[in-house]
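Milestone M4 deliverable, item 7.
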Amino acid sequence: MSSPGEYYNSLPPITKAYGTLCLLATTLAQLGLLAPIHIALIPDLVFKNFQVWRLITNLFFLGGFSINFGIRLLMIARYGVLLEKGPFERRTADFLWMMIFGSLTLLVLSFIPFFWTPFLGVSLVFMLLYLWSREFPNANISLYGLVNLKAFYLPWAMLALDVIFGSKIMPDLLGIIAGHLYYFLTVLHPLATGKNYLKTPKWVNKLVARFRIGAPVAAVRQAGGVGAVGSGTGGGAYSSARAPPESSTNTAFRGRSYRLTD
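Output delivered:
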């Protein structure tokens, strides 16, 4: 069994960085060194007082130390890692762009009064869960050892449990909306039309290459990833990698497990 340090070092870079920042933000808040109100997304303070840091800091707060916080952190460690090491393996720029696009989508939605929520960290985590459930829809999941269900239904089951246990529905719902928008633009729409309008921007690739985060772009191209860096006409954030085979023979929810160019 690996030590905690070895496990932490084995985590993929983007998931590790995001999880670490979430843990740091909650720890500082718990110690009284950081007041959550100072990092919350409050539109009036953003636009009138130019407190633009709130556009970013709100994404890293998952609430105070609690069972819910632990569950969210475990969701990052599980579903974020499974995505970054699975469909996004050796494609760090694509994974980073997915996180950026999801964050921007959540911010835009949150500026609508009906959808407003002061902290979008839970929503971003839920987006990861939703994307994983669409990538591996037929995986068998045991929900707290009580109910077995297909991964396709997991986000909705978690949303229902949150409501039952008294949590707000809006953060989870926003994550599902952002996740589905990304999945639609990078998988469903390209499969239907052959066109992808959400390819990873060049500046994201350059950023990853500049700081040597994850796999270099050149290595991805040599590995044969079609569209892995947003250079192909049909390639997108998902389109270059095959998902591992599903253990279930049920094809009701197939998921994207083939290349656009096949």
